[in-house]
Structures are given as structure tokens and as C-alpha cells.
Amino acid sequence: MLSSWDQLKGHSEQRELFRRSLELGRLSHAYVLAGPEGIGKRQFARLLAQSVFCRNHELAELQICGDCRACRAFAVNAWPDYIEIGVPEGKNTIPIALIAGEDGKRGREGLCYELSMAPQASDRRVAVINDAGLMNTESANALLKTLEEPPADSLILLVCDNPDTLLPTIRSRCQIIRFFPMSADDVKQILLQEEIVDSEEEAASIAALCEGSLEIARQLLNPDLRKLKSSVAKHLSQMEAMKPLKIAASVIEGIEEMSSSTAEQRQNAQWLLRFVADAIQDRLKGLAHGDLADPLTQKLGARSGVDLLAPMLERTIAASRQIDGSSPVKLVLEALFDDLAKLFRVAAKR
Ligand SMILES: [Zn+2]
Fold it and tell me: How many percent of the chain have pLDDT more than 70?
């Protein structure tokens, strides 16, 4: 967890928006913090809550000192006026028990009950609901009652990927604040600072692919996926010896070994196709700039090399679309590598 706003990458406009609302005394009771997964929304929500509690800063400063009683208790999740919930381990939804109490104690426990109590140690109670789109109908309806008549001095932050996954009645009672993906440069810095990767080069390559999301960066760093990536890269670098069915078989095997879930297999196949497309694109750029070191330039000449790589890239992108359109991963990959090998053979004969 972050211990200062300085550690948060990006989202300065959103922070300024909250700071202004606090300065003007116009903070709403409920907000939806919406935006893609893995870009720091949850961190933002926590920093915002901690800033509300910090004793050494005025509210309108939206700052944390890290040292006062509130900050220290907050850091170890022990500040009594802060409530944070999300999907429990092993569950797919946020159960009503977390919102409104267990069956026998409905209305006398849970987030809504706690919010209805006067703050114990500060001026306000703050509740954060992570993955708010995953509240089941019962939970959402229970929360709705609180949103309709929010307790004085309460602040509710609903964190979610897509506000459309919330009940319209919930959405309409919250102010929606949109968050955007981080810049590739910010992602690169986080990957290095948090020692998620150890080389500058690797950080840059993951940052370029992960669409500004640390969550995607982590998926891309899966060691099995990286192994598969380097094996495909090796095959692609020796196109003259490319054995399409063998490559397809080893890729499919790798994907199946990584996960038995069809959805995850599709996702991993997509990443792999992105790697293939990026590798082809890099070579294409090199050849277009007259890269003499590329074996393709030596074998075919730069011009014919470009004429070969461009359709290969198109074919790879088409395969990615087929997977999106839920064609079977195995068939798509077999056909793709077969076509890539054919394109090479035709070019080599010219
Ligand atoms: Zn403090």
C-alpha cells in the first residue's frame, strides 16, 4: 500500500477535483471511482480516506503526514472510522453480510450499520467498496437504502472497472469520477521501483504492452507466458526452418498447461499473438529503415522482406480477432502458423 500521494502515478486531475470539493465544502456523500483494472484506483481511494483522517493537515490540503495517530493507525488498518470491503477470497460476489450484516444480525452489522454510527475518532466515516460491480442484487439493494439517505459526515467510495456494472439506481446517487490508464513511462517506473522486473529493457517492453495497467503487466510477467513468448520468438527468427504444426502444438500445449479455464486460455493466446505481432512489427520497422543486420534483409532484400512481413502482421491481427470472436484457440493458432510458414515459402521462392 502507498504511504504518500507522491507515490501514486498519474490521477492528479482526479485528486485536484476532490481537493477543490473539500476546499469548497462540497464533498458529496458517494462517489464511483471508475476505470480499468490495475491503474491505482484502490490506492487512490485509500489515500483519499487517509487524507480525510490525517490530523496534521487541513482537509482542503488533501495530504497525509504518515506520522499522526490517525495515519499510523490507518496504515495498519486499525482506524475505527474506516471501512473497506471487497469480494472475499474464494467468492465471486460481495455478499450482503458485508453490506448489511449476517442473516440473524441484518441491519445491526456490516458497512451500512457502521456508517450510520457517529464517527469515533474523526469528523467523518469513510467506506471503500472494492470491485463494487460485483455486489449481488441483494447487496446492491441494501447499499441503495444507505445511498438514498446517507448518514451525515459519511463518505462512500465505490471502486469499479465499469460503472455500467452498477445498478442504475446506485449510479444515479453517486458522482462518477473516471480514471484513465497510466502512461507507459509511469508503469515502467513502478515496475522498476517495486522491483517487479530488474532490467530497464524488460520494464520498457512490458510497459509498452500493458495498456497502462499494472494488472495486465503482472499477467504478462507470468513466467510460463514469458517462456512461451521466447520460444515463439525463436521460431520466428528462424523462419526458413519454421515447422508450423510443431510450433502450434507447442504453443497450444503451453497455453493449456498454464490454465485449464477457457477464458484464461483465450486471454493467454491473445497475449501470445500480441507478442508475435509486436515482434513482426519491430522487424518491419527495422527493414523499412534498411536494417542490414536482419537475416531477412540478407536473404530477401529489405524491400521483399517488407513485402513478406506486412501480410504476416495482418494475418496475426486477423487471428487475434478470430479469438475475440470465440473461434477455438487451437484451430486459430494452427491455421495462423501454417499461413505464416506459407507466406515465407512464397516470398523465399520469388
Ligand atoms: Zn497524518
Answer: 100
Q: Considering just the CA atoms, what is the radius of gyration of the chain in Å?
A: 25
Residues 22 and 59 sit within 8 Å (Cβ to Cβ) = yes
Cβ proximity of 284 and 306 under 8 Å? yes
Rounded Cα–Cα distance for residues 23 and 268 (Å): 46
What are the backbone dihedrals phi and psi of residue 180, each rounded to the nearest 5 degrees, phi first? -120, 160
Distance 166 CA to ligand 1 centre (A): 33
- Distance from Cα 51 to the centre of ligand 1, integer Å: 7
Å from CA of 112 to ligand 1 middle = 26
Q: Which residues contact 334 (CB under 8 A, 6 or more apart)?
A: 244, 245, 248, 252
Residue 223 burial (10 A CB sphere; 0-12, 13-18, 19+): exposed
pLDDT digits (tens, 9 = 90+) for 158-215: 999 999 999 999 999 999 999 999 999 999 999 999 899 999 998 998 998 898 999 8
Contact 79, 52 (CB under 8 A): no
CB 350 within 8 A of CB 304: yes
Cβ atoms 55, 68 nearer than 8 A: yes
* Span from the CA of 12 to the centroid of ligand 1 (angstroms): 20
Give me the helices (H) in the chain, please.
Answer: 12-23, 41-53, 69-75, 96-100, 110-116, 137-148, 168-171, 184-193, 200-209, 214-220, 223-237, 244-258, 262-288, 295-300, 302-324, 329-349
